[in-house]
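pasting GntR family transcriptional regulator for the record, 241 residues
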Amino acid sequence: MGSAYLMIKDDLRGLIENGGYAVGELIPSQSDLAETYGVSAPTVKRAVELLAREGFLEAAAGGYVVARRRVPQGYATTLRSYYEERGANTSFPETKIIRFCTVGASDLEARRLGIAPGAPVYRTVRLRYADGKPFVFLTNCTPCEYFPELASVDLTVHSLYSTFDEMGRPALEADRTIEILRATTSLCALLDVQPEEPLFKVTTMVYDEQGVALDYSEAVFLSEGNSFHITTRVLGEGLMR
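structre below
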């Protein structure tokens, strides 16, 4: 059967996602799996290697173990909320509001948002969890004049971008910058990581259909458990060399 390896891959993936195999657990040997599924060893090998490429398994002494799932973040190419992103990758998101307040925009925030320094903005500081573990530390800065009712929204259960949409000013475009930083003392405490551990920092500017900046944010993600998928399209006659 030409697609037997895909059936085996999907079956093993289902077991992993449903807790049949725990993180770090050694899965049965390829010879045992071949006997279980009644297929050849090369068929099992192909299925297992595909799962490894997708981030579900990783090579270890004696075979393959279940990896901590690396969730492809669509931030580089799509404008999706945290809940949509995590929901699409079978995790269980939670959000803790650390601080929500109205403050005057700093010079940097004002410059990014195209508003006057000191203009009122909502500053939202959140810590988000996936499967009960801290996953991303996020700070948003949103001009109050665009969303005067934002203070009444429970952002532990509602997406900020979905709220923009519901309030009649949807976020339709985003510019994002991804860089690597080292964990500071405060980030170590928030994200439960070691000092100097590498982290992803994602800076995002969100715009409406007129190109007006609606939100400026900085998100710090764990490097373990995250990857970022980027699709590049050639425009015009081709890439410059």
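Residues 4-66 form a domain with the Arc Repressor Mutant, subunit A fold (CATH 1.10.10.10).
The two ends are 45 Å apart (CA to CA).
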